[in-house]
Write a structure and sequence with these properties.
2 helices; 250 residues; mainly beta; globular; 7-stranded mixed beta sheet
Length: 250
């Protein structure tokens, strides 16, 4: 079950996308990950924990590269292909990612990243991945729109994968794609954003697998949908495989 989106020269603003049909076989796409083979599981991880949890890491882990108090500190020390594992907590920080990193909780832990300013996460890495993490954005100027608007996640030039993540932005959009970025959304929810779920510019691409988008009262469960083209200056689009258009682009 996948969605592939290829934006035209105009901006494509994805508010809600869904292929509402009982026969999923009518519309299929390849299930390939942009992060396949990018991270070495045998390499020692970098760990992140709040001050009082350092002992928990040392008691459970023998093979590590370092322990840090913030995710951004760990990112600054990471090299391409590193995995950063995070212990439970709400981490109030803004992440700038330029290195190929894989960020996920320690098994059994629950992690929230909460930021403000323009974006909680700004990624230009060739390949980055988040798994099992809630990513939130609070505050900001709700009057700003498009490329100038507030967003929870910004991806430009590189690839980003969200696997089993929750993305919310209080006043702005969930994800902004720029400069031919590629976003892979798998088993994730981009819900309850102040504006759009995803905004795509500059021929950026989106693949969506088994995820949910919800904006205001509009929601859908993604089935197997591949968007091949956009017409009417971004006002409508159709599934390139089955021809259905049960979604709206504004």
């Amino acid at each position: 079950m996948a969605i592939a989106l290829h934006a035209s020269a105009c901006a494509l603003v994805v508010v809600a996308i869904g292929c509402y049909q009982s026969d999923e076989k009518a519309c299929t796409a390849t299930d390939s990950s942009c992060c396949a083979g990018a991270f070495d599981p045998s390499r020692p991880c970098l760990y992140v924990c709040q001050r009082d949890r350092r002992g928990s890491v040392l008691s459970k882990v023998t093979h590590l590269r370092g322990i840090y108090r913030s995710i951004m500190q760990a990112i600054k020390q990471a090299v391409d292909g590193d995995t950063i594992q995070v212990l439970s907590g709400t981490y109030e920080e803004n992440l700038v990612i330029e290195t190929n990193v894989y960020i996920k909780p320690v098994p059994g832990e629950e992690v929230t990243i909460r930021g403000d300013n323009l974006a909680t996460i700004n990624s230009s890495a060739m390949t980055a991945k988040f798994e099992n993490i809630s990513i939130e954005h609070t505050g900001g100027d709700s009057s700003l729109k498009g490329k100038q608007g507030v967003r929870c996640i910004e991806v430009h030039e590189g690839d980003l994968e969200l696997n089993n993540c929750l993305v919310t932005c209080q006043v702005g959009s969930g994800v902004l794609l720029l400069d031919q970025a590629y976003l892979r959304v798998k088993k994730s929810r981009i819900n309850d954003n102040g504006r759009c779920g995803i905004i795509s510019f500059d021929e950026s691409r989106l693949d969506c697998d088994d995820s949910q988008f919800k904006v205001s009262t509009i929601s859908f469960e993604s089935m197997s949908l591949r968007i091949a083209w956009v017409d009417g200056e971004g006002q409508s689009a159709r599934c390139g495989r089955c021809g259905r258009s049960d979604f709206v682009c504004l």
